[in-house]
Amino acid sequence: MTEKTVHNAVMVEETMLVLDVKSGGHYLDGTLGGGTHTEELLKRSKPDGHVISLDVDRSALARATERFATYGDRWKGVEANFRHLASVAEQENLALLDGILLDVGLSSDELENSSLGISFQKDGPLDMRLGPKSNDDGLTAAEVINSWTQQDLETVIRTFGEERYARRIAAQIVKARKSARIIRTLELVSVIRSVVPHTYEGGRIHFATRTFQALRIVVNDELQALKDAIRGAQTVLKPGGHLAILTFHSLEDRIVKLAFTGTEAWEPITKKPMMASEEETKENPRSRTAKLRAAIKK
Ligand SMILES: C[S@@+](CC[C@H](N)C(=O)[O-])C[C@H]1O[C@@H](n2cnc3c(N)ncnc32)[C@H](O)[C@@H]1O
């Protein structure tokens, strides 16, 4: 038996509504994670709808394979990066699709898994790849931290972490790595701690949040993967098919907003992003930063 998921899926009802899930439809969930969204797609497309779920995290796929066995050939899990969703849908003979969902970022299962090196609260190797298919070049966070120039580190931490102390943090990383390579998450946390104010952002977020976010984005090439996925969705959705994307920080939301409004290909379903209800944010704090945008392929 694989371990149960601890991930609490976000805005499930809202995503199903904007996807307009129909009996017998063909759906692709690009981010399987704990499987709640996938299961809803299966339930709402019964009795003969098909759902294919992608993830780069092998443990998410193993968990779902057990959980969804009862759905037989209505469900398939594929270890793939969602940036290649168009070719996966074609290989699996599921195109053209009625709907595609992306719930980007991390699952709580991954945050709990210290061996991925994603959490700044758990000691682990500074890796940060979510799985072997997370990137094509094998880049790890340790490689970035120990071999990139101070200028490059500063740019990455500022651009992808929107971190105001990027310069100090980058300088301190370069200083610290002269005595020994920084290879563990908590080693990096203490380097950051030594140069940021004690009252970091009024205590609203942990002082390592932004630097860790920046490294994760770079290692997994997250922003480009999202752009590739939206472009791919355009080719494998039916005209009238729906694309729903849940994002958790402004860099990602900006990409989705621009993609949906900047071309003739999409008709946005809502002008503004949908947010989680007050009730949900109380129960699941992770949902506080979630933004849901959806569009119809013209
Ligand atoms: C927020 S969770 C999804 C949760 C899911 N919707 C649910 O109902 O539990 C995000 C998942 O996307 C996966 N992921 C992140 N980037 C990916 C990528 N480029 N390709 C495929 N999966 C990715 C992560 O491994 C993680 O399992």
TrEMBL record:
Pfam families: Methyltransf_5. Residues 288-298 have a biased composition (Basic residues). It is found in: Cytoplasm. InterPro entries: RsmH, SAM-dep_MeTrfase_MraW_recog, SAM-dependent_MTases_sf. Its main location: cytoplasm. S-adenosyl-L-methionine binds at D55, F82, D103. PANTHER family: 12S RRNA N4-METHYLCYTIDINE METHYLTRANSFERASE, S-ADENOSYL-METHYLTRANSFERASE MRAW. This is Ribosomal RNA small subunit methyltransferase H. It comes from Candidatus Uhrbacteria bacterium CG22_combo_CG10-13_8_21_14_all_47_17.
